[in-house]
Structure formats: structure tokens, C-alpha cells
Amino acid sequence: MSNLFFWPALALTALLAYLPALHSYFVKDDIILILSAQITWPNLLTHSWPGGFFRPTAEMLFASQYALFGLNALPYHALSLGAHALTTFFLYLFLLRLLTDRNQSRICALIFALHPLHTESVSWISGQMSLFAGLCTLLLLYLSCREHSFWRATTILITTIGLGFYESFAAAPILWVTLYGYIPRIRRHVRPIALTIATLSVALPTSAYFYWRFAILGLKGGNYTVVPSIETALTNLFYYLYLLIGGSAMGGRILYYQPTQIFSTTHFLHVFPPLFIASIILLVIISTLYVRRQIQGVNTRISKEALLPIIWLLAALLPALILPERPRRLAYTSVPAFAILVTASFSYLQHKTRHGVIFTRAGLLFYLLIMTATLYARNRDWQTASIIEREMTTLIAPAQECASVVIDAPNLLGDALFFNSLSTERWLDLSTGRRLPIYDAHQVQPHQSLPLPTCYFRYANGKFVSTNPETIPYYIRGKNWTTTPTSQPHQSPPNSSPPPSH
Fold first, then answer.
1. How many domains does the chain have?
2. Residue 318 DSSP label
3. Which string of DSSP letters, residue by residue, matches 32-92?
4. Same domain, 368 and 413
5. How confident is the model at residue 339 (pLDDT cuts 50, 70, 90)?
6. Mean local confidence (pLDDT), 150-172
7. Is 40 exposed, middle or buried (0-12, 13-18, 19+ CB in 10 A)?
8. Containing domain of residue 239, as a range?
9. Which pTM value belongs to this model?
10. To the nearest whole percent, how much of the chain has pLDDT over 90?
11. For 396-415, what is the mean pLDDT?
């Protein structure tokens, strides 16, 4: 396919897959980060964001968006989708330097743009920090291969901006040096003196950033504690590989499933979604073909370029050996390696099987359809989560009798538990004028003592419904409140009247 048709087709496919996210609202920490972002000087260099993090460039981005758009979520999402598209384009330009086949570079860009692991960065407004850090990473890789000295001089600026978005950008120079040392084609484009200048241009602002953050401001790791251990490193590595292959986005909860839960009919497709199964089948077919040719005595020596995705992936996942990284932080450095691996697998099938062209095209189309459907489903989850968060004020504001609220909602986003976040608490304070404890029904212990009277609500089929009309003060159908009988221990306090029905 020519560029005239490829890029519009890719843009349209990605737009349709991310369409639910464009219509979603703020989720989890979005509002608290937006409202607390500062752009004034010199407070920008000394301000600590909620959670004890130092990300000045991200604060400037959030403060600028709030000044322009207020709390209208659509422009935020449009900016995220535009940044993701630009990142994909820079990856394509960089891959043209690595791969000999232009079509392979296009397929890699297509897989990168549609990989569901990116939803946490693109669909979540708070994920703009890791999204723009990923953009700076791919831009750095591309410009480092440019021969003009002007482009190499921009590495200081790009590094400073990237670190200011997210600390994970520190993995970018490690990845660049690894690829430079491993791929001869890159060394032909970049002379040793240019590499030395580029390395110093990255090392100086990186050292200054960490010295300012840890020594001057004393912010350390924020909410995260570095506890290096072999168990943590292996868990992180296997979990990231699971997510890259197409595993569920249910967050760390997957790690705590028991064997009986994993293979139960309820959880099986949560743990092994169709994209994960398709990727495993593809890798098994490739491995089988390779082993069969080895047995037949065919020369199947693995070239240096064939190991490129493995080397790239090892370099990209180095931070996971130390920190319990969340998926969004390493997605933009590790997904390109997975895209190269999948593309190389289909290329191998094309050359080593009978009717390879037809078989490969059909298989690639089927694989991309599964990936697009998975991406669309993940974005629907983000849209549903944002609806729940936005409607929560409607749910709680009239419940003047409630001393605490327990909400039974699906764990759509894994670690992003929207109603346990700082942003939700702040949003409810501003909307209802009262501090009301909110609990996740799945995390409440059987004998846990909650402030009484406690109101229970369940989200199902697109609306909040009563879990037990006999004992719960209120239930909601759509947006219409209706009073229901109450009983002990959920008695209404004296001299109070229920909110009127609408």
C-alpha cells in the first residue's frame, strides 16, 4: 500500500478505535492534577505535585490546557490522540533507519499505533505525562540518527522536556546506546564524535534533574519505594511480557488470581483475551517452523538483525528490574520491540511457507482486526469508568442521610480505581459540600466497621441500581431518585427527611 492510502487508513482506524475515549470524562487523578498544576516562575521549579513528584513540564502542560479548556475533557483527549499519532510517525521514521523493508516499517507503525497497552497513556488524561515522555523518547531516537549537527544539538532540550514530563524518560538514553552498539546500520549514520556529543547532551540534563529532585528538593520517589529484589524483578518482567503479548489490562489484580480462578469460565477470557491467544499461536507457529528446519538440516542461522526486538526489549525493560513500574511508563519504549517481533514473524511465514503471501496477508489482517477490536473494547472501559465517575456526584449529592457509601462497580481499569482516588474525593467535596467516605465493595472486609448509616449502590447495565431495596435508603434508575423503606441498622437520623423524588 502506498503512503497515499496507508497513512489515512491508519489514522481512520486509530480514530475509530479511540472514539469512545474521545467522549469520556476525567477519571481518577485527572482533576486533582489539573487544578493543582502551577505555571508561575519560580514556583514551577520547587513545586511538588500530589504524590510527591517533580514533573515541571507536565505541570506546564496541564496548567496551559486548563487555562484554555477549563474542565472540558474533549480537547484534552484530542491532544492526547494527536501526540500518539505524532509518536507513531517518529517511530516510523526511526524504523526506516533500522529495517531494510519500508513495508515492514509501516506494519510496525500500524501495530504500535493500535496496541491496546497504550490506552492507559492515550485514553487517560493523567497518562499525558507518560505519553509526552514517550513522544520525546521516539523523537530523541529519530534525531540521534540525523547527520546535521543542528538536530543533535536539540538533544539537550528534548532530554530536559522529556524528564520534566516523566522520570521514565531516563530509560531513553540507555535504549539509544544499546541500539547504537548493536546495529551497524546506525553506526554508519552516526560517527563516534557525534555519539559522544549526544551522550553528553543527554547525561548533563539527566544528572542535573536527579540532583535537583533528590538532593535539593528531597522528593525522593514520591509515593513509590524502591525495594530491589529478585522476586520483584521477575514478577515485573513476566507481567510486562504478558501485557505486551496482549494480556488483560485488569492491572495487578491478575497477579493475585489463584489457579482455579485463572481457568474458571468467569475469568479465563479476562486472563487470556483473544489478542493474547493470537500472539501465542503466532509465536508457536514460528518456533515450530524454525525447529522443523533445524531438524531437516536447513541453514537457519539467526542473523543479528533477527535478534533486534529481543535486544530492544531487554534494554527497554531494565527499569522494571528496580521499580514496580506501571504499564504506561514503559509502553512507548517496549511496544516498538514487540511490533518488530510480530512483523518479523509474519515476514518469516511469508518466506518459509507454501502460499506464503496469501497466508501471511490473511493472518496479518486477522491479527490486526483482533488488535483493533481489543483496543476499542479497552476504550469503552475508559468511557464507562468516566461515566461512573461523573455520575457519582448525582448519586451521592441527594443522599444526605448517608454517612458512608459503598459502590459495587466493575474493575474496568485495574489499578485505576476511580472512586478511591484523590481526584474523586476533591470532585465530590466541590460538588456536594461534604466529605463522604467512599468504599470499593470488593475491598470491604466482612467484619469491617463502616460509618452508619451506610448506603450501598451497584453499577450495572449503564446505571446505578439498588443492591437490596429492603435495607438500602436509596436506589437510582438512570438519574431519577426514588426513596425506599429503611430498616436497622441503616436508620435515618432524627429530624431528617429524604430527598424528594424527581
1. 2
2. G
3. HHHHH----TTGGGT--BTTTB--HHHHHHHHHHHHHHTT-HHHHHHHHHHHHHHHHHHHH
4. no
5. very high
6. 83
7. exposed
8. 3-382
9. 0.84
10. 24
11. 63
